[in-house]
Amino acid sequence: MLPPSDDSRTALAARAFAWAQAQLGPASAQVLAQPQVNESVLARIERGEELDSAVLAEIHAASARDAQVANEFLAHFLPDLTRAGQRLRARQLKRFLDTGDLVQSMLADAWPSLAAVRFTTRPQFLAFLSQRLRWKASDRSRSFEADKRRENARVELDEQTLSSDERRRDGLSAAVDPDDWEMLVQLIVRLPERDRRLLSAFLAGRSIDEIAADHGLSRDATRMAVQRAIARARARS
Question: Is the whole model's pTM more than 0.70, yes or no?
């Protein structure tokens, strides 16, 4: 096999430079204009590497020395990562996470170790970033579910507190000594069925109005019935 001619190498170098300008940016094009970097790119291509992978390999190596080069290198993968993020968001995160936020967060995490990651080809490096994106999506999903569980627990606690407040506001609970509540719970099983049902509802946190509606009684009649049930329970203690 004949070695490539100087003309073909010059044309190949021009193509590589044009690709860097169009697909990466001015900082990367400046790196590629350096003779030693240009020679390394040509050698990679002559060994059978794709032009984009050959250029990206050298730009990746230079990213450790130049932040702008690193920015252009990572930005090159943004369209592919955004599409991958949209698929992940649809499958795992639905409406609670913006795709751009997910991708940017992953890239921010990857930035410090960017130069330490081995680059072989563009598809290989894209697969690496896509895996990091999946990990980030999973972390966000777990975090969201944990937050949701905490919020549900908080809402449940608030509802319990509200129920307790409602009992206090109806005036009847205020007439029951807090020390009597445990005693009433223990004695309720020894009451007649009607008293047992009324007092069970009251101790479960239902308001006088709710108990009245449940049993087809007026508010005043319900209040008096509950008071009598409490009195009977105390009398049995």
Answer: no
